[in-house]
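A quick aside before the break. I want you to see a complete sequence-to-structure record at least once, exactly as it would be stored in a machine-readable document. Don't worry about memorizing anything.
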Amino acid sequence: MPDPPNTENEFLRQLTKVVGANLPDEQFGVSELAQAVGMSRSNLLRKVKKMTGLSVSQFVRQERLMQAMELLKQPGLTVSEVAFQVGFSSTSYFIKCFREHYGYPPGAAGEKGYDESEARPSGQTHRLVAIMFTDIQGYTALMQQDEEKALQYRSRHREVFNAITEKYHGKILQYYGDGTLSIFQSAIDAVHCGIELQQAFQLQPKLPVRVGVHSGDIIITEEDIIGDGVNVASRVESLAAAGSVFISEKVYDEVKNQPGIRTVSMGSFAFKNVLKPLEVFAISNSGLVVPERGQLTGKLQQPAGSTGDRRPGKNRALLRWLLPVMLLLVAGYLLVRTGVFNTLSLKPVSAGREGGEKSIAVLPFINDSNDSSNVYIINGLMESILDHLQRLDGLRVISRTSVERYRNTGKTIPEIAEELDVRYFVEGSGQKIGDQLVLSIQLIEASSDRHLWSEQFNRETSDIFGLQREVAKKIADKIQVIITPETAAQLEKVPTDNLEAYEAFLKGRECFNHGLEDRTSFSRAIPYYEQAIALDPEFARAYAGLAIAYYLLDYDQAEKHYADQINRYADKAMLYDPRSPQCLVAKALFYLYTGAYTSALPHLEKALEYSPNSPLVINILADFYTRFVPNTEKYLEYALRGIRIDIASHDSTTASFIYLHVSNALIQSGFQAESERFINRSLAYDPNNLYSAYVKAFILYTKHRDLATTRAQLLEAYQRDTTRLDILQELGKISYFMRDYPAAYRYYKRFADARTTLGLDIYPEENAKIAAVMRQMGKPAEAERYIQAFQIYTENDQSIYQPLNRAMLAAYEGDPERAVEQVRQFSKAENYHYWTVLFLELDPLMDSVKKLPGFQKSMRVIEKKFRERQDALRERLKDLL
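That is the input. The structure line, written in tokens, reads:
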């Protein structure tokens, strides 16, 4: 018997109701809708397609847009607010979808008399305008401390901003969290608006708002607001202080003769991604803040307090040395960017070109298109082919970062082969013409510079995944690498059926890859990844990209913000592709983030099984075994594996870091002579490498055991760059070991104050020593603060050193028996660093316990186990040492 005629309508009404109930949830997609209506995903897809002609994703998006239309017709709501209310995290993507659906932008939906025929098909409008950026200083931190107050701040900010902007005929283009982007037809109107805004924000409750204004050309499209003018306005605003209005020199030229507008020059600044330095002015009208130049921070190429020289200022230099620390875990930052383990095993490896080992490097592809904006597609093809090759066991594949330096090189193939120690090269060039991809590929034998195979592919963009797979298989066939059935199955997998989603993902990956040079690139990658999963809610690689980007944004920050995002996106990635190395890495990083190290390891090992040549996975494993679960043997194993795939040329800076990290790996196992040999080579290549200078001070300590000499050597390095917090805390530590508490106090306090000022979560293990110094210096309140911080750190520490931390707490609290017991517990551990053996008995906190029989017995066990492991390791490494 057929269904009643209204059954289908009732079903669609049910779906509409469920979507409406979950409208603000951007994660609500096909799987969630199927679960809500009690159907399998496949049945829901078939039924919706049959009834509406739409996919389920299209149906959900259509319902969101229909609800958006109703909201836009209501007064008082901005486009950004509506976008978030209907589940679009990206305003620009909402505008794009809305225009595609209705044929005109959402901003026109509520305008009376709007003629839809006037909507420009091109979606672009050039305008010369005054551009204003604002934001609330400290808003993110406030959200963590008092969410209700933060929301009240934002509500007041928008209420005042809307009213005053309308008064001066401004147009609000975008709300983004705690900030705004707006435009004015007149620079004079924009400045008057900024003045009145700041005067209003000084009334109770006061708001710490920054305002920046610039005049320039912008392009408004259905997807975005772009143009150099937007970039400059953002940079000017970043420089401003709370309560101030900063304007560019172009705006100053337009307002300098206006009565009622007073200005003062703040000087010239070299902003990031702005070609030439710009003079910036502060509005000095009554009630507005005019900060001192030296107080300014912003998106600068060099610090605000500098003049014409290129020497970095204090904060900039601190960030310069901290950046490698922040990125080390995921990207193997020092291993990749500086080539730390890139070119050198302890003895040369030459099998790559002459022996039986098969090795290959994929050189950067050339974008033949006249449109430089297509470069992300060509780079994406290169990286995807590289990713396919990295999955092949029995083939050594050189990493992307190692070949990137050859993008514009004049060197010949044999010359590059000599530097990379590789047998084969892949060269490629391509272009995108409409919906066509044209890709030319050559496989070259390195020693002879002879082409073994070349082919040109002309494919529809819809066949991009088949193209990547075919190229990888043909290369493997030509160099006779066997592809196992398991690997073949992985190569056949298509990351997404939605080409728009893949294009957004490639744009995100292109941004992400620049994160090694500019950490903000991770933030810029996020909207593209979000767009990708909005288009395909089952796109595993995009979820993994989001998890990793959020992880890096939180890395080494005192205030953590993104635990939920990292976990949620990593879980989504694993749900949709549990065999993807990138997805496994994303989940592993969440476990590292939370201190669950034992849970991270199987994910990393499985990722390496699926992609034996992955530099990402190998570098994380090397770091895992030196920082999280110390195991020097495995550290060296993965470091040496990394050498064979991460290879760069031997410039002096790179070589210096190579030898530094080999030296550091060796001294951790107590190989003093070998370590000293490599650290001397490091300094010979670059005498200004202060990392090597202070590591050498500790290597030499293992010979002479003279703390005063070590401190003098550290002080010499520190005086060459007094922004180095790493050396500063080492000076505090050595002074503490010397019982020179006034000196330890000076160094530790300077370090701790800078750490707090910069909002960094670095060296938390030092807090017990800092507390002990504060107590010795008669500062009990400060001592209590630091020992409480150390106690929290210890409770969360999952490493083998947790018992030692507990021993220090017990000794600090005057409980020697408990301290001895915790040292005994630690003596059961394996693979600890040489520094533990050297410095445990020197620690003043151990003074009350180190003569007790139990402590002495445990120390003998610790020393004996270390020496036995060192002897075994020396035997295994004898051919390399």
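Two observations worth writing down. Residues 162 and 534 are 30 Å apart (CA to CA). The chain is about 55% helix and 10% strand. We'll return to this after the break.
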